């Protein structure tokens, strides 16, 4: 079964690996790719790692990218542009919670835009 793919982007490879481990506990049939840390293994993000992860995660059903901090967002946006894919989306949600929801919903066969809509409903900012 093809499903929406997931890319985890973190400044730390250990954070990405830990989240991957958590997500694998609840879903084994969704492509989850990691782009943690720099190419040299340090703290930071790598455009090349993100591009490779997008390619590996894309089964044709779309790819959702989740990130931790600001420069990860900038590299993810650039990677989506360079990949030339119209089915890759950067998700504005907390890394752990967003990726968890995205993975579970992809695992039950939800379509790309339905998953995005569901995540957006979960993370609405309310000013009281």
Automatic annotation (TrEMBL):
Checking Pfam families in the record gives:
EIIA-man
Keyword tRNA processing tagged: no
Record keywords, A-Z: Transferase
EC number(s) per entry = 2.7.1.121
Q: Which domain of life is it from?
A: Bacteria
Which InterPro entries does the protein's record reference?
Answer: DhaM, DhaM_N, PTS_EIIA_man-typ, PTS_EIIA_man-typ_sf
Q: Where is the PTS EIIA type-4 domain?
A: 3-128
| Gene3D superfamilies assigned | Phosphotransferase system, mannose-type IIA component
GO terms of biological process kind: glycerol catabolic process; phosphoenolpyruvate-dependent sugar phosphotransferase system
Q: Which reaction does it catalyse?
A: dihydroxyacetone + phosphoenolpyruvate = dihydroxyacetone phosphate + pyruvate
A GO term, aspect molecular function: phosphoenolpyruvate-glycerone phosphotransferase activity
Kindly list the GO CC terms recorded for this protein.
Answer: membrane
Q: Which PANTHER family match?
A: PEP-DEPENDENT DIHYDROXYACETONE KINASE, PHOSPHORYL DONOR SUBUNIT DHAM (PTHR38594)
What does the subunit comment say? Homodimer. The dihydroxyacetone kinase complex is composed of a homodimer of DhaM, a homodimer of DhaK and the subunit DhaL.
Q: Which NCBIfam families does the UniProt entry name for this protein?
A: dha_pts
Q: What does this protein do?
A: Component of the dihydroxyacetone kinase complex, which is responsible for the phosphoenolpyruvate (PEP)-dependent phosphorylation of dihydroxyacetone. DhaM serves as the phosphoryl donor. Is phosphorylated by phosphoenolpyruvate in an EI- and HPr-dependent reaction, and a phosphorelay system on histidine residues finally leads to phosphoryl transfer to DhaL and dihydroxyacetone.
Identification of the protein by name: phosphoenolpyruvate--glycerone phosphotransferase
The organism is: Jeotgalibacillus soli
- Upper lineage: Bacteria, Bacillati, Bacillota, Bacilli, Bacillales
């Amino acid at each position: 079964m093809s499903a929406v793919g997931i890319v985890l982007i973190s400044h730390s490879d250990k954070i990405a690996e830990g989240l991957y481990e958590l997500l694998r506990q609840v879903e084994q049939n969704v492509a989850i790719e990691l782009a943690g840390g720099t190419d040299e293994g340090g703290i930071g993000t790598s455009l090349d790692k993100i591009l490779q992860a997008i390619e590996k995660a894309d089964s044709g059903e779309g790819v959702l990218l989740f990130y931790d901090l600001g420069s990860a967002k900038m590299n993810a946006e650039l990677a989506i542009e360079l990949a030339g894919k119209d089915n890759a989306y950067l998700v504005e949600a907390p890394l752990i919670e967003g990726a968890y929801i995205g993975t579970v919903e992809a695992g039950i066969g939800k379509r790309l835009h339905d998953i995005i809509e569901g995540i957006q409903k979960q993370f609405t900012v309310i000013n009281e």
